[in-house]
């Protein structure tokens, strides 16, 4: 297969949505078992009409402000809340995370503006499956695959040597600056969270950062997702179920429209984002490094018929050519290593070729040991 090219002509979902269709093409219709259940037409933040039985459930919300203060008890309590969220959920929201709220708003807005630009402008950045960098509309190169109802922009931020701003949109004019500022703040936050996870795992506080290659060499990519409104939201998904292949994801959700759902037991829990919060989730590489003490969790995105939705997913990853394997400190006779060593470059080929496949990849490694 030619990995430089998409297997068939690309459909821009936003353009399709704007064309005024009232039913969606077959290519976007998911098999019945994958379709969203308990579907509510308006996925707004007011959940009073939500028929979902998990109406009141939400992922843990953790205020990080006491990590900085002198109060040891409050600090320990915060660490414990993070620990529990990592063990029990793999997903949590953080408040008082240190990133400027104004900057979060600007970042969301410049990307909304980008997606509002004419299609020809966006097409200048059309991506290919060799690096995925640029404007894209599918994940995976399987010919005839059922597609997700979203477009995206994907860019490399870290290491600096991979940061190529000429591949970033030149419009709106403030975009490159805003993304540089935002990226720096989010990378700092990622480093702080890796430290908390290291401590909670009983490792040196710089263990995970070092395993990722150290401050200068960690990987970081931004995927800006655009989910156009959809005339038949009950038949499709914005993103199919997947776990994030990388280390840690720092997600800035839309401030008006929800859509992210987290798999828990047999249910899909709709995340209700708090204003100015980030959503953090564990990726497959931390599942491997922690020898499955922390697990990456399957998630998906549903769409709706009323509103477009934008989200910024920052993937904080190991340097792509380092071998990632269970930490020796966490391997014992009773808990032997569950995963073979593998570089992230090798690892991410799977999702880049096959598209989102739930937790199939990390689970398939289990049987290789
Ligand atoms: C992703 C993702 C969730 C969202 O980009 O990997 O899961 O809410 N995004 O857009
Ligand atoms: Ni994801």
TrEMBL record:
Signal peptide: none annotated. One of its GO terms (biological process) is regulation of defense response to fungus. The keyword Oxidoreductase applies. Keywords: Dioxygenase, Iron, Jasmonic acid signaling pathway, Metal-binding, Oxidoreductase, Plant defense, Vitamin C. Transmembrane segments: none annotated. It catalyses: jasmonate + 2-oxoglutarate + O2 = (1R,2R)-12-hydroxyjasmonate + succinate + CO2. Residues 217-318 form the Fe2OG dioxygenase domain. GO terms for molecular function: dioxygenase activity; jasmonic acid hydrolase; L-ascorbic acid binding; metal ion binding. The keyword Iron applies. PROSITE patterns: FE2OG_OXY. Belongs to the iron/ascorbate-dependent oxidoreductase family. This is Probable 2-oxoglutarate-dependent dioxygenase At3g111800. It comes from Cicer arietinum (Chickpea). The lineage of its organism: Eukaryota, Viridiplantae, Streptophyta, Embryophyta, Tracheophyta. The gene is LOC101507532.
